[in-house]
Design brief:
Blueprint: H1 5-16, E1 72-73, H2 76-86, E2 90-92, E3 100-104, E4 110-115, E5 120-122, E6 128-130, E7 132-137, E8 143-147, E9 153-154, E10 162-168, E11 175-180, E12 187-189, E13 192-199, E14 202-209, E15 212-219, H3 222-225, E16 231-237, E17 245-249, E18 263-271, E19 274-279, H4 281-285, E20 293-300, E21 305-310, E22 322-325, E23 335-341, E24 351-364, E25 372-377, E26 392-399, E27 412-417, H5 419-428, E28 433-439, E29 449-452, E30 461-467, E31 470-478, E32 491-492, E33 498-505, E34 511-519, E35 526-533, E36 538-542, E37 553-561, E38 566-569, E39 573-577
Length: 580
């Protein structure tokens, strides 16, 4: 038998630390392995003669973490080991979602990149693919996006009558916006489908967004507008979905701001299975109105949220494809923007090292650096208006980055720190983080900025670097039982089982394990603290005499700590004591 020097050294060190108390992990039947300062010996196949008589043969194999083809690992623990050994970031595949991706860093920290809108989705084979909302025509004439997270589908050509123009979401939890009347075959251009002359002088345009769609009626002339005193569009909602907001504007555009200067609300009412849109007649007949006029109802879905509010707007802008801040007319019109990042429970009790908000700026008043500010704010919803802005709390970051003015100062990413906002979420165990951004001066035109929203081609994102000082990598008992709860809880053949856990610290500090056990359903519990041990080592505690009774069911869990900062509690494991 050939035993490497590293393996023998590890074995001697393990014995000196009384690691002989270890038992195989009941889920993998592999020997739990201490993680020392160097993880290189993990890849060796080790057979330790000194303990061979104590363990089954299946427990003597030590395997390195299963990695993907490009620096991936399926668990946080495996990714941290590999990142430290390789000196490169490692993707944690088990934590990936449609909006968030996690990487272990060589420093022992973890980096999470959270997009405000979906950037990936599950493909037909179950693997992640990039969202691509570009439109393609199907064999039956209908139109779909290449890869839309909510299954966007548009109508092909249709005769008179009611038709489903836009379908969004799965059956039972989606929505359908219709059209009454003839539909020609749509012309496709990237993410846009144009149905020409659905009424004399009126084009119907649908633009796919990564969270839904924008549907616009382009009214080409004053004569065509006469037909649109009220517009009925069939509308059905199967589950939770926001109803479209609607506004209209003419073709008067301010070059410096990029704003449509003449806008008017569109009254929106719900009829029987239909939306009733009533354009402002005075706006359509006003001699100052420059045609074509665009009427724009739109819809978005999914986690996270963003919207802008503007002093000259009175409608919900949460489905708009852009965010705005500042002023373009010395304060007569002012805008602010708000972002909400949902499902933040995973951030609880983490130590946030840094958080940076990235926004794609596609337009600015000039390329002269002007300050803009980020704040932590109250809950952001589609009720936000300039007259109903979310309450503003402490300032969390400032920036002067500016892009999107000219060919020499083109569109691009700008960033602003928001660390304090996410640290507040982590420390106070909130489920979402709400951020507001505004120009440092709302009377200085040079501070006017426009960004892509979560509906746009480049959605906002936040990059968070954090650490969990200690983590529970695995749990086991001796005698071996599976870690389950409920009716499937296994039988334990002793009144004095040993509870075990593998504890790691991202900075390599010594670790302790706090074990807690109680009667299933009970309120009071007992605890025991074991350690210290090296990061990655297994620590165990034996249930004392008279603590358990025959035929009773018990639950236990464990928490890691470095002696100062506790980590998260593990899942509960349950068993029933049956020794006879």
């Amino acid at each position: 038998m050939i035993v490497s020097r590293a393996a023998l050294a590890a074995a001697r060190d393990a014995l000196s630390r009384k690691v002989l108390r270890m038992s195989p992990d009941p889920r993998t039947h592999q020997l739990p392995v201490p993680r020392y300062r160097s993880a290189r010996w993990l890849s060796a196949a080790v057979c330790l003669v000194s303990i061979a008589g104590l363990l089954p043969a299946s427990a003597m194999v030590v395997e390195k973490p299963a990695l993907g083809p490009s620096g991936e690992a399926s668990t946080v623990a495996a990714a941290l080991v590999t990142a430290k050994a390789s000196g490169k970031p490692v993707l944690i595949t088990s934590k990936t979602t449609e909006t968030t991706e996690y990487r272990a860093l060589p420093s022992g920290l973890i980096e999470a990149i959270i997009a405000a809108g979906p950037v990936r989705m599950r493909g037909a084979n179950g693997s992640w693919i990039a969202v691509d909302v570009s439109l393609v025509r199907q064999a039956d004439g209908s139109v779909t996006s290449k890869a839309h997270p909510y299954g966007l589908k548009l109508s092909g050509p249709a005769r008179s009558g009611d038709h489903d123009l836009v379908e969004l979401g799965a059956p039972g939890r989606g929505s359908r916006l219709g059209w009454s009347g003839r539909l020609p075959a749509p012309e496709l251009d990237g993410t846009t489908a144009t149905y020409r002359e659905v009424k004399p002088g009126v084009d119907l345009v649908v633009q796919a967004t990564r969270t839904g769609y924008e549907q616009q009626l382009v009214v080409k002339s004053r004569q065509a507008a006469v037909q649109l005193k009220q517009l009925r569009m069939p509308w059905k909602v199967d589950g939770p979905a926001t109803s479209p907001a609607s506004v209209m504007w003419d073709s008067t555009v301010d070059k410096a701001s990029g704003e449509h200067l003449r806008r008017a609300p569109v009254k929106l009412a719900l009829g029987k299975d239909a939306l009733l849109l009533t354009p402002d007649a005075s706006f359509l007949t006003d001699p100052k109105t420059v045609y074509p006029v665009t009427i724009d109802p739109s819809q978005s879905s999914g986690p996270n949220f963003d919207a802008f509010v503007q002093s000259s707007y009175s409608t919900d802008q949460s489905a708009a494809t852009e965010l705005k801040i500042g002023t373009y007319d010395s304060g007569a019109n002012k805008a602010r923007s708000y972002l909400r990042f949902d499902n933040q429970d995973w951030l609880w009790d983490k130590q946030i090292q840094a958080a940076t908000l990235s926004l794609w700026e596609h337009h600015s008043y000039s390329c002269t650096a002007r300050g803009w500010v980020a704040y932590r704010v109250a809950d952001v919803t589609n009720t936000a208006r300039w007259t109903n802005r979310p309450a503003q709390y402490e300032q969390v970051g400032t920036s002067t980055q500016t892009k999107g003015f000219s060919s020499s100062c083109g569109a691009g990413w700008v960033t602003i720190p928001v660390t304090a906002a996410f640290q507040y979420t982590a420390a106070h165990r909130l489920s979402k983080t709400n951020i507001g951004i505004s120009a440092a001066s709302e009377t200085d035109n040079y501070g006017w900025k426009r960004f892509n929203s979560r509906e746009g081609a480049n959605p906002p994102s936040v990059t968070i670097t954090y650490q969990t000082k200690t983590s529970v990598d695995a749990q086991a008992t001796a005698p071996d039982t599976a870690c389950v709860t409920g009716a499937d809880r296994p039988a334990m053949s002793t009144l004095n089982p040993q509870l075990r856990a593998q504890i790691s610290d991202t900075q390599g500090a010594q670790v302790y394990a706090v074990f807690e056990w109680k009667v299933v359903g009970g309120i009071t519990s007992s605890t025991a603290t074991e350690g210290p041990g090296a990061s990655g080592s297994w620590l165990g505690t034996t249930i004392p005499d008279d603590a358990f009774t025959e035929g009773s069911s018990y639950a236990w869990r464990v928490q890691g700590t470095d002696g100062t900062t506790p980590g998260e509690w593990s899942n509960w494991c349950e068993f029933t004591v049956i020794t006879m």
